[in-house]
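Exercise: predict the fold of this chain.
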Amino acid sequence: MFWGYNGLYLWKAAVEKAGSTDVDAVLKAYPGLEVQTAAGKIVADTRNHHTAKPVYIGRILANGQFEIIWQSKGLVTPEPWSEYTYPDRQCDWGKGGKGSFDMKGGQKVFLDPAAMPIEPM
């Protein structure tokens, strides 16, 4: 439910910023968007399009509610690929990037070379 809510409101904010529902216009409007959610503010990363968000650790109470026992001091920067499972993989849509890529011989090898870069508005 959390990501369904966030996705809808991020899309809404991008459509409002773009002034259109055109997919390309919405994609260009997405980087850097900030949206208030039930869990606090989230921000669409300008490079990888994942969201920075607060992190909470909680305990489930007998009544089904949650008690927060720890929370991050601020937003946690997104890491789209695990350094353990994909140590050479990163994601970059900024400045001519085409999404996810692997580093091979010091060069970016994009997973989808046909992808078009998304330059933010």
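Check your answer against the key: The chain has a mean pLDDT of 90.
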